[in-house]
Write a structure and sequence with these properties.
The structure holds 3 protein chains of 3 kinds.
Chain A: H1 9-15, H2 22-51, H3 53-56, H4 94-130, H5 132-147, H6 150-161, H7 165-175, H8 178-192, H9 195-202, H10 207-243, H11 255-262, H12 271-298
Chain B: H1 2-18, E1 31-36, H2 51-60, E2 65-67, E3 74-76, E4 79-86, E5 89-94, H3 108-119, H4 128-131, E6 134-141, E7 144-149, H5 156-159, H6 168-173, H7 175-179, E8 189-195, E9 199-204, E10 217-222, H8 226-235, E11 240-241, H9 249-254, E12 258-273, H10 287-296, H11 299-305, E13 311-313, H12 336-345, E14 352-358, H13 367-381, E15 383-389, H14 393-401, E16 408-413, H15 422-429, H16 441-451, H17 456-472, E17 477-489, E18 492-493, E19 508-509
Helix pairs in contact in B: 10-12, 15-16, 16-17
Chain C: H1 2-28, H2 33-37, H3 44-54, H4 60-72, H5 86-121, H6 126-140, H7 143-157, H8 169-199, H9 202-209, H10 214-252, H11 257-266, H12 270-298, H13 300-304
Helix pairs in contact in C: 1-12, 5-6, 5-8, 5-10, 5-12, 6-8, 7-8, 7-10, 8-10, 9-10, 10-11, 10-12, 11-12
The chains are: A mainly alpha, B alpha+beta, C mainly alpha.
Chain lengths: ~300, ~500, ~300
Amino acid sequence: MSTPTRVELGEVIAAGASPVTARQATWRRLARLRWGVGAAGVLLLIIATAVFAPLIAPHDPLAVDIRHRLSPPAWMEHGTAEHLLGTDQVGRDLLARMIYGGRVSLAVAVASVIISATIGVLLGLGAGYFGGNTDWTIMTVINVMLTFPFVLLALAVIAVLGPSLMNMIFVLGVAGWPIYARVVRAETLAIREREFVLAGRALGMSHGRLVFRQILPNLVSTIVVIATLQVAQVIILESFLSFLGLGVQPPTPAWGNMLGEGRLYMLNSWWIATFPGLAIFLTTLVINLMGNALRDWLDPHLKE
Amino acid sequence: MKRGITLASMVLLGVSLLAPADLVAQSRDETVIYGLQSDVQNWDPPNSVLRESIILGYNVFDHLAARDLKTGKVGPSLAVSWKNLDDTTWEVKLRQGVKFHDGSPFSARDVKASFDRVLNPENKLTARGNHAKIKSVEIVDDHTVRFKTDGPYPLFVERLTALVMQSEKVMKEKGHEWMQENPIGTGPYKLVRWNKKQEHVLIRNEDYWGPKPAYKYVRIRIIPEQATQIAELISGGVDIIKAVPPDQMDVINKSGQARTTISPILRTAMIQLDQAGRAGANPFQDRRVRLAANLAVDIDSIIKHVLNGLGDRVATTVNPMAFGFDPGLKPFKQDLAQAKKLLADAGYPNGLDVAFLRGQAWAEPGVVQTSDAIVSDLAKAGIRTKARMVGEVGPFTNLVRDGKADPMFEWTWGYYSIFDADAIFFDVMTCNQPYSVYCNKAFDDLVIQGRSTLDAKRRTEIYAKAQKLIHDDAAYLYKWSLRGVWGVSNRVEYEAPRDEVDRMWIVTPRKK
Amino acid sequence: MRRYIARQLVQLIVVVFGISLLAFAILHVLGDPVLLLLPQNAGKEEFERYRHLLGLDRPMYVQYWKFVSRAVLGDFGKSWYADTPAFRLVLERMPPTIYLTLAGLVVAMVIALPLGTIAALRRHSWVDSLCTVVAVAGQAAPIFWLGIMLIIVFSVRLRLLPASGYGTWQNFLMPSFCLGAALAPITMRLVRSGVIEVMNMEFIKTARAKGLAEGRVVVKHAFRNACIPVITVLGLQFGQLLGGAIITETVFAWPGVATLTVESIRNQDFPVVQCAVVLLALLIVGVNLLVDLVVGFIDPRIRAA
């Protein structure tokens, strides 16, 4: 049940490795891959609905209709085909809000992951490549950041900046980078002593060229794996902030604030909070499955 | 082996830390549990504006006069009788043989001290405005006091229900700081323990002068989430909750464990429009825009569909139960075309954008949903709002008080439980009051006239005029007066109080 | 060993310094306290007077120094809202949070240790697959969602457990399960990989060769060594566990530091926010140090260094 409990990705990646017979390994990889492909399919579907929201959504997600509030999903008694998943506490169509809500949740997650990946990768490369004082400084900052509960940091910063979409992307982006930096640094440390890098250095290549042309390409797969898994984490974190009322502001729908607003109705109009909850669960689940499969596929450590 | 011991001792340490101290000892059968959404800031009722302070104050302190919940009339409490000596002098006889919780007797000196304390501007007590018409308090004998008022003061008796009697001895010996957390009253219950933001435990005052309360203990639990409050009521964790959202009533009534009880209450809800420009220049300083806002919203249909009918449409801010209410004044009806026209006349042919300060359902159940509906109606007329949500009641009222609110903000007013139009006019609608963003000299004159006239008929006429004025001027966006919904466990007997003051000493076990 | 402790201490000091900087920056760099304190229509003069009064017109480093030198003595200033020292407010709320965190930790261990060990010993069996499923699904379910579900089932429908509150052992069950369940998946995976790694080590093979019973091998040798990575990561995860506590506390109205912090943030009560952030961070740093020492103690490789 994850929350902002950030996974120590490095360890997990290592934890997957275990000596097994070649045939077993192939079989397992294929099995996981199948799961991964399935998950990727579902994820693509979710992304597609988010992207094409205006074309798909049956109603305006903001249109209030107090005469038809709290109407149940179509398959229940008193439900209508007009509102497939029912309506919320002020009569807005739940399906439309789910579709648009996914748009917001995914956009926030992707944007902030890009920010944290950029910061994290640059600092990680710097620390690993230059070593010495640079390394020490960056590692210290990483340790400070990792010590700080992510949620607490996000809450505190939002308290000062005020809740808004942009602030949330900023906070989630800035708070999430240490995990990339840690892994990238470790990998860089290993690669920098490899022959092709040493050769490049001997040929007098510039630092920039060495780092970005020689080292970075070797790290892409690792970064992609982390970023994928982080998207899931950020979605959950965003939903929590919105749930507390500190994230995406109503009436803009996001899965988190829909869940938060629907909480009061759990005992009689359960659908308002249940569907966004399921959406968060399903999305993070398929992203995690896909991330795990990607890791098996791409990560050099696992290639027997 | 040594390592084993270290590990074992660490585990033991962890386990011992886990055992929480201070378990509640009293038996459930002897206890009534009351759920509140937010905690009080202190146990000194004159030093707080929160409804919670008034409620808790009633259970531990007494007032000079008290309202009979059945008739709605004000009758004796610590005072046994009162009379006018002339237009500006009242003589009050006090009850004999009453003791404070610390054992000291209650006398005229305590009455004088209580009023002097609240009236002294240096003490900066928030209740001062409620009693400012009183000029001085004189002790005639141990059980008689005389009040001198600043001109005729028709609300004198009503307001006797609004100030708790505190002990002179405590004020002198312990002082203000101590009184913030240690209430010494004469009331039916005594405070035993206060765990801030968590719970209060009260024990019956066995020396109480009035009828003996049925329950020996009162626990007041602070439960911020409405959903949790309802869950607690159904699961038996609390016996009484207030401000139940109308659309959650069926959950309680179908549970078989609890039921709801409803009463019209002395509270009106509105959206204040910053006519006075307290938070800076804004469109609502133009009457046409305020009028347009009032015409844009279909309040009747919101009451019907969102509040399940639990609200009474009012033409102004005056509650039908308050003295001075004019039933002849007709509320606005939705008229989108007229609203658009007014906006265009005011120079906003394409509509306007305005910030809207919003809160949670602290005193007004369903406010989030009703405001969502209002926002949607306003947008149809071209008034597009941008919401600023505040999560806690204290900061919300502070924003308003400090003039940092938005041009429009949600507001409800419980009249300090004073059943008189003056109790909302003065605090919420006259110039330069902390919670008022309306300023109109003509209206202020009427309010001052009203509060200095003793003759009831004359006052009714003045208030009718005042209501006409603020209605025509569309001072605020008028909504409705509330009907309160309480959730009551099937363990106990309890009826919804019309003044929103929950009196735990009248709760009795339910007969099987 | 001594060098190891010294190195940990130096890092500790640096981390504490960083945290104090962060807490200071939250208020003074990102926001302007005067703007938050004074009404909007306050005149420029009043503004400047207030700035001076609060010492905000002095250079940043002076202000920072003042903040730190006071904080060391436990003086974080008075709460802007409750009129009591922030330090006292936060300290009062600390025990419930610590109890909840420990209880959550216990629950996570109770779930993760047996499952993880069995999964490792019976690799590719149905238990192993079950663990993988639980781990992946568990990581996807938001903790606050789980909390609400627990309340509906156990309080409202079954009427077995209190929906909120604090004080009795019943109050502990749902929140600690909620928090523990959040930590269990990752712990389980770590236990599994730890045990797998250890079972392949030389000394286990030696023990087996010596003819020790398999159960004894697992319990006496494998298990203890598998504990090392688990303890390390739990130390690192402690901060995240506290983060989880914030969410759990909110759902169950638990009277801990987390609810206080969320509430203070909503109230814009920054002295309390700062104080809570610093104290929580110190707690985390302390736990990490403790974990490092414990690991150093039981891991012979580090002890020898």
